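Practice record 12: protein with adenosine monophosphate.
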Amino acid sequence: MFGPGSIVGILGGGQLGKMLAVAASRLGLEVHIYAPEPDAIARSVAKFNTVAAYDDAASLTAFAKVCDVVTYEFENVPAQTAAIAGENSALRPGALALEVAQDRLTEKTFLRDKAGVPVIGFKDVKSVFDLKRAGKEFGWPIILKTRRFGYDGKGQVKVDSEAGAQAAFDSLSGDLIAEAFAPFAREVSIVAARGLSGDFAAYPLIENLHRNHILHTSTCPTHSDKGVAKDMAKSIMDALDYVGVMATEFFQMDDGSLIINEIAPRVHNSGHLTQNAGCTDQFEQHIRAICGRPLGGAVPAHITQMTNLIGDDVAGLPALEADPAANIHLYGKGAPRPGRKMGHVNRIIKD
Ligand code: AMP
């Protein structure tokens, strides 16, 4: 169990790392940021900093040795980086969560076969022939995705019919996966934590609205799921022997049933609303879990809504500052760019 004075290492220095660092600091812990960017925004709230590449074995070893526990704020931490961190410190969540979450084919296979949870129909695609076969089996349209490094709708294309298969296949590079199209009514997520002894706490279901493939608004609690989503998240986290906060993203159908889209082995944008929901927020929850401490309460006191401030949205800051209901969180990123997450606003919409 790590407490005040212990050092939490974080791989990555973006806004998630920054908010994790603030939460750790609130618990009396010290933070060490490891990232290649000298100006990574999380550095401004960390006592210790390493500027080095993720494949710099010597720097990674030195970093991990001085940290009591190492965590990460992004899922594309290279396997070798995770291995070195795990050999020289406690890596939480562990390397298996990264391996599973980094590759959509490995992920969906693990979720279906090891965690026993429902995932959308999928097929490994090595050729246009495979893609056409997926279309015949699942019916068109098909979603063709890169297995790795896809985010915010990047690295994926909707294929409406067999006639479009070749062009779609040619438009993406790297290993590919085909998914059946989910005719969902809404997109929802569960943010949950699992502690060192397997203890579990999940926030209620969160409803997510996207704009231009980027998360725009999250609201929690939303439509009841009769606890099914929490049970699925628990099955996944148990199967991964997971420690920390993890998000599970679902497609919810008209009849309320849920199919898993993907998991994120980290704190998640849809969980930012917990900062003002009147319970332990997801950042503190993650720090508590990885430090082997008891999990905090995950029952919100209010219905809370988060809206991302993306790109030029920050121009609306004066109006937000004049709004007493707006809880503003800015990341300190400097110049806004289209699609760049600059901050978010949490609002209690019902007590
Ligand atoms: P992803 O990068 O997998 O999270 O996909 C980004 C977005 O594309 C999702 O939030 C959905 O809106 C949409 N999408 C992804 N996969 C599917 C699918 N199999 N069926 C329908 N929509 C999808």
